[in-house]
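Catalogue entry: protein

Sequence with per-residue tokens
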Amino acid sequence: MLNLINFHSINVDIEGEIAWVQAAATLGQLYYNIAEKSPIHAFPAGLGPPVGVGGHFSGGGFGSLMRKYGLSADNIIDARIVDANGKILDRRSMGEDLFWAIRGGGAASFGVVLSWKIKLVRVPSTVTVFTVAKTLEQGAIRLLHKWQYIAHKLPKDLAIMPGIAKINSTRQLSFTSLFLGKAEELLQIMQESFPELDLKREDCIETTWVRSTMHFFGLPFNGSLNPLLDRIPKPRYPFKSVSDYVTDPIPKSALQELWRRTSEVDLPYIAFIPYGGRMSEISKSKIPYPHREGNIYFISYEVDWIKEGESTKNIEWMRSLYKYMTPYVSKQPRRAYLNYRDLDLGQNKIDGSASYEEAKIWGVKYFNGNFDRLVKVKSKVDPSNFFSNEQSIPVSHPDEWID
């Protein structure tokens, strides 16, 4: 195991609209450093400022800007990586195959990324956020059902992200949103596309993009930006999380059952992330992350627990929920997101020595048709399988490949 904690410098070049970001920097540090240089530049990445960029970028990396600009990995233009021979390589010296693999294929299978060169994106000086919460009695299921039909078709500048959670023991569905523009324009779009939510001007907060990232994470966002620099994550309870992709709207009856099941545990959280927009325009093979056109949204299921001795109960609850959702999500294969790594999908041996056929069980769920190309790259750049873990890309003997 390598500790890269001191590799967290960030160099932002606003004129060139690029930045070099070391692998142990956090998203919050990145957002802060961009904002120091420009109020109209951003980077498409996640909603948690303490998240490290290294794993986030290498697995794909999505957030509130992805309908406009795609994933973090879609906006990486160079990297520095230590390979299995101890050499430090950049894009030119590593070659396009390895550079392709580490942007969404999980860089830990191929080497140690020291830093990423990213392309910054432009945002308006004023953006609008809102969070509107609904209980079951206020029509939460009806609204979530309608959201499925419109969220992926909305303008790229708008991402509406519902989430089911328990707040003070009361379950509610919160619609959290980022709009790259002013409130009046947002209200007009909502009235035309989603009037059922009954969004009002007083629900909308006009702010800057960097402060919107603080809003989503529950940080005070009217004062200093310094909380973004906090590299110490909030204390985490034990948790289990899994993922799904949805290609057709889920029936209202299934959403009602999903809601009912959240009453069975203390700390459930289910997030729905809309696709469409730029995510449907990028080829499924441009980088290893394949979940593009045809997916209307992504589901993240999570359950946390506080008390000792509750692991079995909560893990079994999650497994039961995941099984229940099988008919309503993507099929052949049922897809999953690498950054929500789930050993229940099937795992390599602990030393990463599983065969191609063993690893393919989970590999096609994360990477679909890109899995074979990842195996070819792995076999070429790390034939001794120096970089391995329970779900690392396997090495396959060259004779097994027929080009």
Remarks:
- The domain at 10-122 is CATH 3.30.465.10 (Uridine Diphospho-n-acetylenolpyruvylglucosamine Reductase; domain 3).
- The radius of gyration is 21 Å.
